[in-house]
Amino acid sequence: MSKCPVMTTANGSPVADNQNSLTAGPRGPLLAQDWQLFEKHAHFNRERIPERVVHAKGSGAFGTFTVTGDITKYTKAKLFEMGKQTDVFLRFSTVAGEKGAADAERDVRGFALKFYTEEGNWDLVGNNTPVFFVRDPYKFMDFVHSQKRDPRTNLRSGTMQWDFWSHAPEALHQITILMSDRGQPASYRHMNGYGSHTYSFINSQNERVWVKFHFKTEQGQKTNSDAQVADLIAGDRESHQRDLYQAIEDGNFPQWKVKVQIMTETQAEATSYNPFDLTKVWPHSEFPLIEIGTLELNRNPENYFAEVEQAAFTPANIVPGIGHSPDKMLQMRILSYGDAQRYRVGANHQHLPVNAARCPVRNYQRDGAMRFDGNGGGAVNYEPNSFGGPAEDPSVKEPALALDGAADRYDHREGNDDFTQAGNLFRIMGKEEQNRLMDTIAGAMAGVPEEIIERQLGYFSKADTAYGAGIAARLQRS
Ligand code: HEM
């Protein structure tokens, strides 16, 4: 006992007694002067920060990305130099549930990566699916509301979910993935990750190509059946967290092969689908996967709150050699994440150790709540200046991107094929997997009003007549 360091209050003053509050007599009321007691309570009352509005439940780990395939002809990003190793932090998550949600539930999974590169942090904030439910960010909030709780019953509602989806045919592709076996991964280690959006690579000649990122699990894809999920959740709501933490503690480091698809700007003008539409994949037959490296997770966080809860990923974080694309979902996300994090964590969240770049950060941002580093000290705080302050570097300017078209609110559903790729996915499944998919969908539609089912069945049938008919039969409709 005597070997323990002395406990202190937050101001560093030694604590004489951490067991008994200060009272007037042994049975008496508290004294207002017991500031140690009040400090302890007051801090406790402020322990929670708002949970993420989506992806609230998550697990994180540190690791490395090692380059094994040469793509320097496509990108000048230093992290892609052959053989290079870059430190990473990966946060997995479920999406729709709150912080107490059960890990094994049917849901999409988040796959958010932060690469601590020598030219700044690159965040690739993806999912375990290559596509998404909506293609216009105007519909994102409506979509999320429909998947969360009914405002009156406080229950999740199949009616809300299918009502939204049945008004959004572009969701069909992602619904087919969510309701398939892949909607219930056995663990975070046993699923793939995707950047999902189209991004760009820029090479040393300042030429652009479009790129999609894939992370293929080396543990093998493994999923849970409905019965396994029910069993698992009954005994353990933290099954994914436990699995990831334990594997890393045991030295059984999970790995993913990292691959890219590349499309030239000329090819992008000729595809039958919009290559910047987040509800579409690029067929691998036309745009083959190119292996570029290995991602390994090999260190558990020391402190969950500091490193996982306070982690802030944003698609805005890119580095020279990697750029965005005209995908309007991606464009909105560039703004949305930093905005959410300034509210959820604070204006200076990028200074926290898990979020901080591991290269010098030099700019003229100053002050703000909880500015806990030196705040730039006495250095000049405006630009341009005559005192040698940091200056811009035109060599990292991206090539110009040609755009055309009059400003308008274009109907994104007009002329868009929402059914072929969803149907292709259905058609490559084996009979048994198709049956499980249709069972799951029919089960999820129980109790949903007729009109909504009718509208949604039309979409399944357009993807594949057997898909629509199979679900209709299960709902006892002809
Ligand atoms: C988390 C917004 C689409 C993946 C979040 C958060 C917001 C948000 C506000 C919480 C951020 C925080 O508090 O730190 C949006 C908007 C979208 C969109 C506005 C579309 C317009 C997507 C898509 C993907 C995705 C398409 C995947 C391809 C994620 C992930 C997280 C997240 C993985 C959790 C990040 C973490 O682990 O901290 N999203 N999202 N989101 N989103 Fe999105």
Question: How would you portray this structure in words?
Answer:
With 478 residues, this protein is of the alpha+beta class. The chain is built from 13 helices and ten strands. Strands 1, 2, 3, 4, 5, 6, 7, 8, 9 and 10 form a ten-stranded antiparallel sheet that branches. Strand 3 (109-117) and strand 4 (120-127) form a beta hairpin. Protoporphyrin IX containing FE is lined by residues 52-55, 58, 91, 93, 110, 112, 125-127, 132, 137, 140, 196, 278, 311-313, 329, 332-333, 336-337, 340-341, 344.
Give a quick set of tags describing it.
single chain, 478 residues, alpha+beta, 13 helices, globular, binds protoporphyrin IX containing FE, EC 1.11.1.6, Catalase_3, catalase, metal-binding, heme
Could you tell me the mean pLDDT?
Answer: 97
Shape: globular
Would you list the SSEs in sequence order as H and E? HEEEEHHHEEEHHEHEHEHHHHH
Number of helices: 13
Q: Provide the list of bound ligands, each named once.
A: protoporphyrin IX containing FE
Low-confidence stretches: none
Mind describing the biggest β-sheet?
10 strands, antiparallel
Structural class by secondary-structure content: alpha+beta
How many angstroms does the end-to-end distance come to?
Answer: 76 Å
Q: Give the tally of β-strands.
A: 10
**Radius of gyration, rounded?**
25 Å
Provide the helix percentage: 25-40%
Percent strand equals 15-25%
Protein name: catalase
Cofactor: heme
Region (Disordered): 1-25
InterPro entries: Catalase, Catalase_3, Catalase_AS, Catalase_clade1/3, Catalase_core, Catalase_immune_responsive, Catalase_sf
